Each structure stands twice: as C-alpha cells, then as structure tokens.
Amino acid sequence: MRLLSLALSTLFLTTTTLAPGTHASLDFKAMLFGNNQDEENVDFGFPAASRHRPPVDCDQYVCQDTLACVAHPIDCPCPYIHDSKCMNDDWYTCVRGSCDQLSLD
After folding, report:
1. Closest Cα to residue 71, out of 80, 62, 81, 83?
2. Per-residue model confidence as pLDDT tens digits over 6-54
3. pLDDT of 104 higher than 60
4. pLDDT tens digits for 57-85?
5. Which residues, in sequence order, are CB contacts of 102 under 8 Å at separation 6+?
6. What is the mean pLDDT of residues 79-101?
7. Is the CB of residue 49 less than 8 Å from the CB of residue 66?
8. Domain ranges in the chain?
9. Where does the signal sequence lie (predicted)?
C-alpha cells in the first residue's frame, strides 16, 4: 500500500510539473537578487555607496573614501591619517607606513 501511495505521489508530481502545455512564470530577478520591495525604485547601475552618502557641496570631484572635494581624482587624500600616499605612474595607493615598503614594479 505504501509503495502504491509513493508511486501515485510521484506520478502526480511528475505530471503536474512536467505536463506539456503547462507554463510557469518565474521571476528571475527575485530569484537572483531577492525580492526586496524597499529598493524597487532604485536606479539600476547606480553605485550603492553613492546612494547612501550625505550630499557634499562640491563642483569638482568628490573622493569616494573621504568625501573630500578635490580638482582631480588623483588629488584625493588617503582615508586614514596614518597612511602614506604612494604614487605609481599616474595613480596612487595608500599604505600604512612608508612608501619604501611598497614594491611598485
């Protein structure tokens, strides 16, 4: 009797889920990213950090880490006072300590 019940249950599930002509609507966005209704109207592709940071009165460039207003991105200060700004060609990196420790090959 148990075997018959199991067979009927399996047959029922198979025919209802794989029956020809049956259409299922899948919400792939909700499956991949969750179904958070609060952020439904947020612009896609707009950086999340920029959405939540306070407004800065700046007509030039606002540094992402420090919110400092500078003329060019390369002029941004390091986020921590103990860091050193080490130049590497046309860009920089911030390191704790001295730039001599950094191998920029």
Report:
1. 62
2. 666 665 666 666 555 555 566 766 767 766 655 555 556 555 655 566 7
3. no
4. 899 999 988 899 999 999 999 999 999 99
5. 86, 93, 95
6. 88
7. no
8. 48-105
9. 1-24
Contacts of 66 (CB under 8 A, 6+ apart): 76, 77, 78, 79
Distance (Å, whole) CA 56 – CA 76: 15
**Cα–Cα distance measured from residue 32 to residue 96, given in angstroms and rounded to the nearest whole number:** 38
The one-letter amino acid at 5: S
Contact 82, 96 (CB under 8 A): yes
The count of other CB atoms within 10 Å of the CB of residue 2 is 6
- The per-residue pLDDT for 101 is 76
Cβ-proximal residues to 85 (8 Å cutoff; 6+ apart), any chain: 77, 78, 92, 93, 94
